[in-house]
Design goal:
Layout: E1 2-8, H1 12-21, E2 29-32, H2 46-49, H3 54-59, E3 67-69, E4 79-81, H4 103-111, H5 119-129, E5 130-132, E6 146-148, H6 158-169, E7 185-188, H7 201-206, E8 215-218, E9 221-229, E10 232-240, E11 243-254, H8 257-267, E12 270-271, H9 273-278, E13 285-286, E14 299-306, E15 319-325, E16 336-344, E17 356-363, E18 371-373, E19 384-386, H10 393-410, E20 419-422, H11 433-443, E21 478-480, H12 495-509
Parallel strand pairs: 1-2, 1-11, 2-8, 5-6, 11-21, 12-13
Antiparallel strand pairs: 3-4, 7-15, 9-10, 10-11, 14-17, 14-20, 15-16, 16-17, 18-19
Helix pairs in contact: 1-12, 5-12
Bound molecules: flavin-adenine dinucleotide (FAD).
Length: about 500
Protein backbone atom coordinates (compact mmCIF):
# COMPACT_ATOMS: atom_id res chain seq x y z
CA UNK A 1 0.00 0.00 0.00
CA UNK A 2 1.63 3.21 -1.13
CA UNK A 3 0.09 6.63 -1.70
CA UNK A 4 1.39 10.02 -2.76
CA UNK A 5 -0.11 11.63 0.34
CA UNK A 6 -1.51 10.15 3.54
CA UNK A 7 -3.60 12.51 5.67
CA UNK A 8 -4.04 11.53 9.31
CA UNK A 9 -7.39 12.73 10.66
CA UNK A 10 -10.51 13.65 8.66
CA UNK A 11 -11.49 16.74 10.65
CA UNK A 12 -11.86 20.41 9.76
CA UNK A 13 -8.43 20.47 8.13
CA UNK A 14 -8.15 16.87 6.91
CA UNK A 15 -11.34 16.94 4.80
CA UNK A 16 -10.32 20.23 3.17
CA UNK A 17 -6.84 18.91 2.32
CA UNK A 18 -8.19 15.63 0.92
CA UNK A 19 -10.60 17.56 -1.29
CA UNK A 20 -8.16 20.12 -2.62
CA UNK A 21 -5.22 17.72 -3.08
CA UNK A 22 -7.29 15.30 -5.16
CA UNK A 23 -8.16 18.07 -7.62
CA UNK A 24 -5.02 16.72 -9.31
CA UNK A 25 -6.09 13.31 -10.72
CA UNK A 26 -2.48 12.16 -10.75
CA UNK A 27 -2.08 12.43 -6.98
CA UNK A 28 -3.32 9.53 -4.86
CA UNK A 29 -4.52 10.48 -1.39
CA UNK A 30 -5.44 8.28 1.56
CA UNK A 31 -7.51 9.97 4.28
CA UNK A 32 -7.42 8.06 7.57
CA UNK A 33 -9.93 8.61 10.38
CA UNK A 34 -10.28 6.89 13.71
CA UNK A 35 -14.03 7.48 13.99
CA UNK A 36 -16.95 6.34 11.80
CA UNK A 37 -17.91 7.68 8.37
CA UNK A 38 -21.36 8.67 7.07
CA UNK A 39 -20.72 9.23 3.37
CA UNK A 40 -23.98 10.96 2.43
CA UNK A 41 -26.61 13.21 3.95
CA UNK A 42 -29.30 10.52 4.06
CA UNK A 43 -27.32 8.36 6.50
CA UNK A 44 -25.89 11.27 8.47
CA UNK A 45 -26.97 10.90 12.14
CA UNK A 46 -29.23 13.55 13.66
CA UNK A 47 -26.82 14.52 16.44
CA UNK A 48 -24.28 15.56 13.78
CA UNK A 49 -26.83 17.00 11.40
CA UNK A 50 -28.87 19.27 13.65
CA UNK A 51 -26.62 21.83 15.22
CA UNK A 52 -28.78 23.87 17.59
CA UNK A 53 -28.49 21.33 20.36
CA UNK A 54 -24.72 21.21 20.52
CA UNK A 55 -24.75 19.45 23.88
CA UNK A 56 -26.23 16.31 22.25
CA UNK A 57 -23.39 15.86 19.76
CA UNK A 58 -20.78 16.79 22.31
CA UNK A 59 -21.69 13.84 24.54
CA UNK A 60 -22.51 11.20 21.95
CA UNK A 61 -19.63 8.78 22.55
CA UNK A 62 -19.37 7.25 19.05
CA UNK A 63 -18.59 10.70 17.68
CA UNK A 64 -16.60 12.13 20.54
CA UNK A 65 -13.22 11.29 22.06
CA UNK A 66 -14.70 12.57 25.35
CA UNK A 67 -11.34 13.48 26.86
CA UNK A 68 -10.85 15.10 30.23
CA UNK A 69 -8.43 17.84 31.17
CA UNK A 70 -7.18 19.91 34.08
CA UNK A 71 -8.51 23.48 33.95
CA UNK A 72 -6.96 24.67 37.22
CA UNK A 73 -5.41 23.15 40.37
CA UNK A 74 -8.74 23.83 42.14
CA UNK A 75 -10.67 21.63 39.70
CA UNK A 76 -8.17 18.80 39.20
CA UNK A 77 -8.40 16.60 36.13
CA UNK A 78 -12.19 16.84 35.81
CA UNK A 79 -12.96 19.15 32.89
CA UNK A 80 -14.82 17.47 30.00
CA UNK A 81 -12.95 18.02 26.72
CA UNK A 82 -15.08 16.95 23.74
CA UNK A 83 -13.35 16.44 20.37
CA UNK A 84 -14.95 15.09 17.24
CA UNK A 85 -14.22 11.46 16.37
CA UNK A 86 -15.93 11.01 13.03
CA UNK A 87 -15.29 11.97 9.41
CA UNK A 88 -15.76 15.75 9.75
CA UNK A 89 -13.93 15.75 13.09
CA UNK A 90 -14.77 18.55 15.49
CA UNK A 91 -16.49 20.48 12.67
CA UNK A 92 -19.15 17.74 12.85
CA UNK A 93 -19.96 18.31 16.55
CA UNK A 94 -19.15 21.97 17.06
CA UNK A 95 -21.22 25.05 17.86
CA UNK A 96 -21.17 26.38 14.25
CA UNK A 97 -19.89 29.84 15.08
CA UNK A 98 -18.06 30.80 11.89
CA UNK A 99 -16.01 33.73 13.05
CA UNK A 100 -12.62 34.97 11.88
CA UNK A 101 -9.97 36.44 14.11
CA UNK A 102 -9.28 40.15 13.95
CA UNK A 103 -6.65 41.19 11.33
CA UNK A 104 -4.12 41.87 14.11
CA UNK A 105 -4.14 38.15 15.00
CA UNK A 106 -2.75 37.15 11.61
CA UNK A 107 -0.50 40.21 11.39
CA UNK A 108 0.99 39.16 14.74
CA UNK A 109 1.77 35.73 13.32
CA UNK A 110 3.57 37.48 10.45
CA UNK A 111 5.46 39.78 12.84
CA UNK A 112 6.64 36.70 14.77
CA UNK A 113 8.41 35.36 11.66
CA UNK A 114 5.57 33.82 9.62
CA UNK A 115 5.27 36.43 6.89
CA UNK A 116 3.06 34.19 4.70
CA UNK A 117 0.24 34.48 7.27
CA UNK A 118 -0.51 38.21 7.43
CA UNK A 119 -4.17 39.23 7.26
CA UNK A 120 -3.81 40.35 3.63
CA UNK A 121 -2.33 36.99 2.65
CA UNK A 122 -4.92 34.91 4.54
CA UNK A 123 -7.99 36.87 3.39
CA UNK A 124 -8.30 35.11 -0.02
CA UNK A 125 -8.48 31.76 1.81
CA UNK A 126 -11.16 32.95 4.21
CA UNK A 127 -13.10 34.01 1.13
CA UNK A 128 -12.42 30.75 -0.69
CA UNK A 129 -13.98 28.62 2.09
CA UNK A 130 -17.37 30.30 2.29
CA UNK A 131 -20.53 31.49 0.62
CA UNK A 132 -21.77 34.32 2.78
CA UNK A 133 -25.54 34.41 2.38
CA UNK A 134 -25.99 37.90 3.84
CA UNK A 135 -23.06 40.11 2.90
CA UNK A 136 -21.50 40.70 -0.50
CA UNK A 137 -18.27 42.70 -0.42
CA UNK A 138 -14.51 42.29 -0.78
CA UNK A 139 -14.13 40.69 2.64
CA UNK A 140 -16.58 37.83 2.06
CA UNK A 141 -16.68 34.83 -0.23
CA UNK A 142 -19.68 34.00 -2.35
CA UNK A 143 -18.87 30.68 -4.03
CA UNK A 144 -17.06 28.58 -1.42
CA UNK A 145 -18.27 25.26 0.03
CA UNK A 146 -19.46 26.49 3.46
CA UNK A 147 -22.68 28.52 3.67
CA UNK A 148 -22.56 31.26 6.31
CA UNK A 149 -25.50 33.28 7.64
CA UNK A 150 -26.56 35.37 10.62
CA UNK A 151 -29.82 35.17 12.55
CA UNK A 152 -32.03 37.92 11.11
CA UNK A 153 -33.17 40.52 13.61
CA UNK A 154 -36.84 39.50 13.36
CA UNK A 155 -35.89 35.98 14.53
CA UNK A 156 -33.96 37.05 17.65
CA UNK A 157 -35.37 35.41 20.76
CA UNK A 158 -36.43 37.70 23.65
CA UNK A 159 -33.30 36.98 25.70
CA UNK A 160 -31.17 38.01 22.71
CA UNK A 161 -33.09 41.22 22.07
CA UNK A 162 -32.72 42.14 25.75
CA UNK A 163 -28.98 41.50 25.53
CA UNK A 164 -28.68 43.67 22.43
CA UNK A 165 -30.58 46.51 24.07
CA UNK A 166 -28.58 46.32 27.29
CA UNK A 167 -25.26 46.36 25.41
CA UNK A 168 -26.26 49.25 23.16
CA UNK A 169 -27.45 51.33 26.11
CA UNK A 170 -24.14 50.61 27.84
CA UNK A 171 -22.37 52.26 24.90
CA UNK A 172 -21.32 49.31 22.72
CA UNK A 173 -21.72 49.85 18.98
CA UNK A 174 -23.93 47.85 16.68
CA UNK A 175 -21.85 45.11 14.96
CA UNK A 176 -23.85 43.78 12.01
CA UNK A 177 -20.89 41.93 10.41
CA UNK A 178 -18.49 40.23 12.80
CA UNK A 179 -16.33 38.96 9.93
CA UNK A 180 -15.57 42.53 8.88
CA UNK A 181 -12.00 43.59 9.80
CA UNK A 182 -13.34 46.49 11.89
CA UNK A 183 -15.83 44.37 13.83
CA UNK A 184 -16.52 45.33 17.46
CA UNK A 185 -19.63 45.65 19.57
CA UNK A 186 -22.85 43.66 19.73
CA UNK A 187 -24.49 41.84 16.85
CA UNK A 188 -25.48 38.54 15.28
CA UNK A 189 -22.80 35.85 15.13
CA UNK A 190 -21.88 34.45 11.69
CA UNK A 191 -22.86 30.79 11.69
CA UNK A 192 -22.41 27.88 9.29
CA UNK A 193 -25.81 26.33 9.93
CA UNK A 194 -28.55 27.48 7.56
CA UNK A 195 -31.87 26.02 8.78
CA UNK A 196 -30.06 24.65 11.81
CA UNK A 197 -28.02 22.10 9.83
CA UNK A 198 -24.38 21.93 10.92
CA UNK A 199 -22.25 22.33 7.79
CA UNK A 200 -19.21 20.23 8.66
CA UNK A 201 -16.23 19.88 6.32
CA UNK A 202 -17.40 16.35 5.65
CA UNK A 203 -20.76 17.56 4.26
CA UNK A 204 -19.41 20.61 2.46
CA UNK A 205 -15.97 19.63 1.17
CA UNK A 206 -15.57 15.87 1.15
CA UNK A 207 -18.97 14.51 0.13
CA UNK A 208 -19.06 16.22 -3.29
CA UNK A 209 -15.71 14.63 -4.31
CA UNK A 210 -16.10 11.12 -2.93
CA UNK A 211 -16.44 9.77 -6.47
CA UNK A 212 -12.75 10.47 -7.18
CA UNK A 213 -10.74 7.32 -7.82
CA UNK A 214 -7.58 9.00 -6.53
CA UNK A 215 -9.23 9.58 -3.12
CA UNK A 216 -9.48 6.76 -0.57
CA UNK A 217 -11.26 7.44 2.73
CA UNK A 218 -10.76 4.83 5.44
CA UNK A 219 -12.66 5.25 8.70
CA UNK A 220 -12.31 3.25 11.93
CA UNK A 221 -8.53 3.26 11.42
CA UNK A 222 -6.37 4.62 14.23
CA UNK A 223 -2.86 5.83 13.45
CA UNK A 224 -0.39 4.58 16.07
CA UNK A 225 2.79 6.28 14.87
CA UNK A 226 4.71 7.70 11.94
CA UNK A 227 7.60 5.65 10.54
CA UNK A 228 10.94 7.11 9.46
CA UNK A 229 13.97 6.18 7.40
CA UNK A 230 16.68 8.48 8.70
CA UNK A 231 15.11 11.96 8.75
CA UNK A 232 12.43 11.15 6.17
CA UNK A 233 8.90 10.13 7.13
CA UNK A 234 8.04 7.15 4.97
CA UNK A 235 4.79 5.75 6.27
CA UNK A 236 2.37 5.20 9.13
CA UNK A 237 1.59 2.30 11.40
CA UNK A 238 -2.16 1.95 11.86
CA UNK A 239 -4.65 -0.23 13.66
CA UNK A 240 -7.74 -1.41 11.80
CA UNK A 241 -9.92 -3.84 13.72
CA UNK A 242 -7.50 -6.03 15.66
CA UNK A 243 -4.80 -5.86 13.01
CA UNK A 244 -1.79 -3.62 12.57
CA UNK A 245 -0.87 -2.41 9.06
CA UNK A 246 1.85 -0.26 7.57
CA UNK A 247 1.00 2.23 4.82
CA UNK A 248 3.77 3.94 2.85
CA UNK A 249 3.58 7.44 1.47
CA UNK A 250 5.68 10.06 -0.30
CA UNK A 251 4.31 12.71 2.02
CA UNK A 252 2.44 12.54 5.33
CA UNK A 253 0.16 15.26 6.68
CA UNK A 254 -0.79 15.15 10.32
CA UNK A 255 -4.25 16.68 10.79
CA UNK A 256 -5.30 14.92 13.98
CA UNK A 257 -6.15 18.16 15.83
CA UNK A 258 -4.74 20.07 18.78
CA UNK A 259 -4.51 16.96 20.96
CA UNK A 260 -4.05 14.13 18.42
CA UNK A 261 -1.25 15.74 16.41
CA UNK A 262 1.19 16.36 19.28
CA UNK A 263 0.26 12.95 20.72
CA UNK A 264 1.11 11.13 17.46
CA UNK A 265 4.35 13.12 17.04
CA UNK A 266 5.46 12.18 20.54
CA UNK A 267 4.48 8.52 20.08
CA UNK A 268 6.68 8.63 16.95
CA UNK A 269 9.68 9.96 18.88
CA UNK A 270 9.29 13.62 17.89
CA UNK A 271 8.99 15.86 20.93
CA UNK A 272 10.81 17.12 24.03
CA UNK A 273 13.69 14.63 24.47
CA UNK A 274 13.45 14.51 28.28
CA UNK A 275 9.76 13.67 28.17
CA UNK A 276 10.23 11.02 25.48
CA UNK A 277 13.04 9.38 27.48
CA UNK A 278 10.88 9.45 30.61
CA UNK A 279 8.19 7.60 28.60
CA UNK A 280 10.74 5.09 27.20
CA UNK A 281 10.24 6.26 23.59
CA UNK A 282 13.37 6.33 21.37
CA UNK A 283 14.06 9.93 20.31
CA UNK A 284 13.73 10.50 16.58
CA UNK A 285 13.98 14.29 16.94
CA UNK A 286 14.30 16.51 19.98
CA UNK A 287 11.58 19.10 19.33
CA UNK A 288 10.93 20.87 22.64
CA UNK A 289 7.82 22.72 21.43
CA UNK A 290 5.67 19.64 20.71
CA UNK A 291 2.71 19.71 23.10
CA UNK A 292 3.74 23.06 24.60
CA UNK A 293 2.01 26.42 23.98
CA UNK A 294 -1.47 24.97 24.61
CA UNK A 295 -3.78 27.89 23.88
CA UNK A 296 -7.53 28.13 24.35
CA UNK A 297 -10.24 30.59 25.30
CA UNK A 298 -11.02 30.15 29.00
CA UNK A 299 -14.65 30.94 29.80
CA UNK A 300 -16.98 31.16 32.76
CA UNK A 301 -20.71 30.79 32.56
CA UNK A 302 -23.07 33.06 34.44
CA UNK A 303 -26.40 31.22 34.71
CA UNK A 304 -29.54 33.20 35.44
CA UNK A 305 -32.90 31.95 36.78
CA UNK A 306 -35.86 33.23 34.75
CA UNK A 307 -39.42 34.10 35.70
CA UNK A 308 -41.90 31.19 35.70
CA UNK A 309 -43.77 32.43 32.65
CA UNK A 310 -40.64 33.09 30.56
CA UNK A 311 -40.47 30.48 27.78
CA UNK A 312 -37.33 28.34 27.39
CA UNK A 313 -37.10 26.29 24.23
CA UNK A 314 -34.09 23.95 24.08
CA UNK A 315 -34.87 23.18 20.41
CA UNK A 316 -34.39 26.84 19.45
CA UNK A 317 -30.99 28.30 18.52
CA UNK A 318 -29.18 28.73 21.81
CA UNK A 319 -26.97 31.69 20.94
CA UNK A 320 -27.69 34.26 18.28
CA UNK A 321 -25.81 37.34 19.45
CA UNK A 322 -22.47 38.17 21.00
CA UNK A 323 -20.60 41.19 22.29
CA UNK A 324 -16.96 41.67 21.24
CA UNK A 325 -15.23 44.27 23.37
CA UNK A 326 -11.80 45.37 24.59
CA UNK A 327 -11.00 45.04 28.28
CA UNK A 328 -10.19 48.21 30.24
CA UNK A 329 -6.48 48.99 29.92
CA UNK A 330 -5.95 46.45 27.16
CA UNK A 331 -4.12 47.24 23.93
CA UNK A 332 -5.55 44.11 22.28
CA UNK A 333 -8.80 44.90 20.47
CA UNK A 334 -11.70 42.49 21.10
CA UNK A 335 -9.79 40.50 23.70
CA UNK A 336 -13.11 39.72 25.43
CA UNK A 337 -16.41 38.28 24.29
CA UNK A 338 -19.76 37.74 25.98
CA UNK A 339 -22.17 35.29 24.46
CA UNK A 340 -25.87 35.42 25.30
CA UNK A 341 -27.63 32.04 25.53
CA UNK A 342 -31.40 31.79 25.39
CA UNK A 343 -31.39 28.66 27.51
CA UNK A 344 -28.80 27.17 29.76
CA UNK A 345 -27.92 23.58 30.42
CA UNK A 346 -24.80 21.98 31.77
CA UNK A 347 -22.31 21.19 28.96
CA UNK A 348 -23.06 17.70 27.77
CA UNK A 349 -26.18 17.62 29.95
CA UNK A 350 -29.85 17.32 29.13
CA UNK A 351 -30.90 20.59 27.48
CA UNK A 352 -34.44 20.02 28.70
CA UNK A 353 -33.09 20.28 32.25
CA UNK A 354 -32.43 23.96 31.53
CA UNK A 355 -31.98 26.26 34.46
CA UNK A 356 -32.71 29.55 32.68
CA UNK A 357 -30.62 31.77 30.44
CA UNK A 358 -26.93 32.45 30.72
CA UNK A 359 -24.00 34.57 29.70
CA UNK A 360 -20.74 32.97 28.66
CA UNK A 361 -17.87 35.27 29.39
CA UNK A 362 -14.87 34.41 27.22
CA UNK A 363 -11.26 35.52 27.42
CA UNK A 364 -10.34 35.71 23.74
CA UNK A 365 -6.63 36.43 24.08
CA UNK A 366 -5.24 34.80 27.21
CA UNK A 367 -1.64 35.38 28.22
CA UNK A 368 -1.37 31.99 29.93
CA UNK A 369 -0.63 28.71 28.16
CA UNK A 370 -0.71 25.03 29.12
CA UNK A 371 0.68 21.78 27.76
CA UNK A 372 -0.11 18.33 26.36
CA UNK A 373 2.01 15.45 27.66
CA UNK A 374 1.82 11.73 27.07
CA UNK A 375 0.23 9.75 29.85
CA UNK A 376 1.07 6.42 28.20
CA UNK A 377 2.78 4.95 25.14
CA UNK A 378 -0.54 3.29 24.27
CA UNK A 379 -2.09 5.35 21.42
CA UNK A 380 -5.56 4.60 22.82
CA UNK A 381 -4.84 6.35 26.13
CA UNK A 382 -5.53 10.08 26.03
CA UNK A 383 -2.64 12.41 26.81
CA UNK A 384 -2.60 14.58 29.94
CA UNK A 385 -4.13 17.98 29.16
CA UNK A 386 -2.97 20.70 31.54
CA UNK A 387 -4.72 23.94 30.55
CA UNK A 388 -3.44 26.13 33.46
CA UNK A 389 -6.24 28.65 33.00
CA UNK A 390 -6.02 32.01 34.75
CA UNK A 391 -2.52 31.45 36.14
CA UNK A 392 -1.73 34.96 34.96
CA UNK A 393 -2.97 38.00 36.94
CA UNK A 394 -3.91 39.88 33.73
CA UNK A 395 -6.12 36.99 32.63
CA UNK A 396 -7.93 36.97 35.99
CA UNK A 397 -8.34 40.76 35.95
CA UNK A 398 -10.04 40.73 32.54
CA UNK A 399 -12.31 37.85 33.53
CA UNK A 400 -13.36 39.65 36.73
CA UNK A 401 -14.27 42.68 34.68
CA UNK A 402 -16.24 40.46 32.27
CA UNK A 403 -18.30 38.87 35.05
CA UNK A 404 -19.04 42.27 36.56
CA UNK A 405 -20.14 43.49 33.13
CA UNK A 406 -22.58 40.54 32.82
CA UNK A 407 -24.12 41.46 36.17
CA UNK A 408 -24.40 45.10 35.10
CA UNK A 409 -26.13 44.19 31.82
CA UNK A 410 -28.65 42.08 33.75
CA UNK A 411 -29.80 45.16 35.61
CA UNK A 412 -31.03 46.77 32.39
CA UNK A 413 -34.77 47.31 32.08
CA UNK A 414 -34.90 44.98 29.07
CA UNK A 415 -34.36 42.04 31.45
CA UNK A 416 -37.00 43.04 33.98
CA UNK A 417 -39.68 40.64 32.65
CA UNK A 418 -37.16 37.85 32.10
CA UNK A 419 -34.86 37.59 35.11
CA UNK A 420 -35.82 36.14 38.47
CA UNK A 421 -32.29 36.15 39.90
CA UNK A 422 -28.68 35.19 39.47
CA UNK A 423 -27.76 31.54 40.09
CA UNK A 424 -24.01 31.99 40.14
CA UNK A 425 -21.80 33.77 41.19
CA UNK A 426 -23.46 34.41 44.56
CA UNK A 427 -23.24 37.74 46.45
CA UNK A 428 -20.58 36.10 48.68
CA UNK A 429 -18.50 35.28 45.58
CA UNK A 430 -18.71 38.94 44.53
CA UNK A 431 -17.47 40.41 47.84
CA UNK A 432 -13.91 41.10 46.69
CA UNK A 433 -11.40 40.45 43.91
CA UNK A 434 -10.09 37.50 45.93
CA UNK A 435 -13.48 35.83 46.38
CA UNK A 436 -14.30 36.39 42.72
CA UNK A 437 -10.93 34.91 41.72
CA UNK A 438 -11.73 31.82 43.77
CA UNK A 439 -15.09 31.51 41.96
CA UNK A 440 -13.33 31.94 38.60
CA UNK A 441 -10.76 29.24 39.38
CA UNK A 442 -13.50 26.83 40.47
CA UNK A 443 -15.66 27.48 37.40
CA UNK A 444 -13.43 28.37 34.45
CA UNK A 445 -13.72 25.91 31.60
CA UNK A 446 -12.87 25.33 27.96
CA UNK A 447 -14.43 27.02 24.93
CA UNK A 448 -13.17 23.97 22.93
CA UNK A 449 -10.55 26.02 21.08
CA UNK A 450 -7.41 24.12 21.99
CA UNK A 451 -4.66 25.26 19.62
CA UNK A 452 -0.96 26.03 19.28
CA UNK A 453 0.44 22.68 20.43
CA UNK A 454 2.69 22.27 17.33
CA UNK A 455 3.21 25.91 16.51
CA UNK A 456 4.88 27.31 13.43
CA UNK A 457 7.64 29.88 13.68
CA UNK A 458 11.04 31.04 12.50
CA UNK A 459 14.40 29.24 12.84
CA UNK A 460 15.30 31.51 15.72
CA UNK A 461 12.43 30.19 17.89
CA UNK A 462 13.47 26.86 19.46
CA UNK A 463 9.84 26.18 20.44
CA UNK A 464 8.62 26.36 16.82
CA UNK A 465 7.79 22.79 15.78
CA UNK A 466 7.06 23.79 12.17
CA UNK A 467 8.33 26.24 9.64
CA UNK A 468 5.71 28.60 8.27
CA UNK A 469 4.87 26.21 5.44
CA UNK A 470 3.89 23.71 8.15
CA UNK A 471 6.80 21.31 7.54
CA UNK A 472 8.08 19.66 10.70
CA UNK A 473 11.46 21.27 11.33
CA UNK A 474 14.39 18.84 11.18
CA UNK A 475 12.46 16.17 9.25
CA UNK A 476 11.39 15.57 5.65
CA UNK A 477 8.12 14.46 4.12
CA UNK A 478 6.03 15.43 7.16
CA UNK A 479 3.70 18.35 7.72
CA UNK A 480 1.24 19.25 10.46
CA UNK A 481 -1.83 21.09 9.16
CA UNK A 482 -4.61 21.71 11.66
CA UNK A 483 -5.48 23.88 14.65
CA UNK A 484 -2.26 22.93 16.44
CA UNK A 485 -0.10 25.03 14.08
CA UNK A 486 -1.43 28.38 15.38
CA UNK A 487 1.35 30.44 17.01
CA UNK A 488 -1.31 31.85 19.36
CA UNK A 489 -5.07 31.47 19.51
CA UNK A 490 -6.97 33.97 17.42
CA UNK A 491 -9.62 36.26 18.93
CA UNK A 492 -12.40 34.10 17.52
CA UNK A 493 -13.59 30.52 17.42
CA UNK A 494 -11.07 28.31 15.65
CA UNK A 495 -12.94 26.41 12.91
CA UNK A 496 -12.84 29.04 10.14
CA UNK A 497 -9.15 29.72 10.80
CA UNK A 498 -8.31 25.98 10.74
CA UNK A 499 -10.07 25.63 7.38
CA UNK A 500 -8.23 28.73 6.09
CA UNK A 501 -4.91 27.12 7.09
CA UNK A 502 -5.77 23.89 5.23
CA UNK A 503 -6.83 25.86 2.14
CA UNK A 504 -3.58 27.84 2.17
CA UNK A 505 -1.29 24.82 2.58
CA UNK A 506 -3.22 22.86 -0.07
CA UNK A 507 -2.64 25.77 -2.46
CA UNK A 508 1.11 25.55 -1.86
CA UNK A 509 1.04 21.82 -2.52
CA UNK A 510 -0.97 22.02 -5.75
C1 LIG B 1 -17.85 20.74 21.17
C2 LIG B 1 -17.07 21.71 20.31
C3 LIG B 1 -17.64 22.93 19.95
C4 LIG B 1 -16.94 23.83 19.15
N1 LIG B 1 -17.56 24.95 18.69
C5 LIG B 1 -16.95 25.72 17.76
C6 LIG B 1 -17.66 26.78 17.10
O1 LIG B 1 -18.83 27.00 17.35
N2 LIG B 1 -16.99 27.50 16.17
C7 LIG B 1 -15.67 27.26 15.86
O2 LIG B 1 -15.11 27.98 15.03
N3 LIG B 1 -14.99 26.28 16.47
C8 LIG B 1 -15.61 25.48 17.37
N4 LIG B 1 -14.95 24.43 17.92
C9 LIG B 1 -13.53 24.24 17.57
C10 LIG B 1 -13.32 23.76 16.14
O3 LIG B 1 -14.35 22.87 15.75
C11 LIG B 1 -11.94 23.11 16.05
O4 LIG B 1 -10.95 24.07 16.37
C12 LIG B 1 -11.62 22.56 14.67
O5 LIG B 1 -12.64 21.68 14.26
C13 LIG B 1 -10.28 21.83 14.73
O6 LIG B 1 -10.02 21.23 13.50
P1 LIG B 1 -8.82 20.20 13.34
O7 LIG B 1 -8.79 19.80 11.92
O8 LIG B 1 -7.61 20.77 13.94
O9 LIG B 1 -9.20 18.96 14.28
P2 LIG B 1 -10.48 18.04 14.27
O10 LIG B 1 -11.58 18.65 13.47
O11 LIG B 1 -10.76 17.71 15.69
O12 LIG B 1 -10.01 16.75 13.47
C14 LIG B 1 -9.07 15.82 13.93
C15 LIG B 1 -9.49 14.47 13.40
O13 LIG B 1 -8.41 13.56 13.60
C16 LIG B 1 -8.93 12.33 14.05
N5 LIG B 1 -7.87 11.64 14.77
C17 LIG B 1 -7.28 12.01 15.93
N6 LIG B 1 -6.34 11.12 16.28
C18 LIG B 1 -6.33 10.16 15.32
C19 LIG B 1 -5.58 8.96 15.13
N7 LIG B 1 -4.63 8.57 16.00
N8 LIG B 1 -5.83 8.20 14.02
C20 LIG B 1 -6.78 8.57 13.12
N9 LIG B 1 -7.53 9.69 13.27
C21 LIG B 1 -7.29 10.48 14.36
C22 LIG B 1 -10.09 12.73 14.93
O14 LIG B 1 -10.99 11.67 15.16
C23 LIG B 1 -10.69 13.88 14.16
O15 LIG B 1 -11.67 13.47 13.25
C24 LIG B 1 -15.61 23.51 18.72
C25 LIG B 1 -15.04 22.29 19.07
C26 LIG B 1 -15.76 21.38 19.84
C27 LIG B 1 -15.13 20.05 20.18
Amino acid sequence: MKYDVVIIGAGSAGCVLATRLTDDPNRSVLLLESGPDYPNFEVYPDDLKFGYNQAASAVDAPHNWAFSGKATEEQGNTMPVPRGRVVGGSSAINGQVFLRGVPEDYDNWAAWGNDEWSFVKTLPYFRKQESDMDIKDDFHGFDGPIPVRRHARETWLPAQTAFYQACRDDGYPDDPDMNHPDSRGVGPIPMNNPDGVRMSTSLTYLNPVRNRLNLTVRSAVTVRRILFEGKRATGVEVQSGDEIFVVESEEIILSAGGIGSPQILMLSGVGPADHLKEMGIPVQLDSPGVGQNLRDHPNVRVPVRVKDDFPLDPEAPRSQLALRYTAAGSSDRNDMQILASSFSSPMGGDPAAGEGIRFTCVLELAVGAGEVKLASTDPHVQPFLDYRYLDEAWDRERMREGVRLCLKLLEHDAYKDIVEGLISPTPQDMVSDDTLDQWLLRNVTTTQHISGTCKMGPDSDPMAVLDQYCHVRGLEGLRVVDVSVLPDCIRANTNATTIMIAERVADWMC
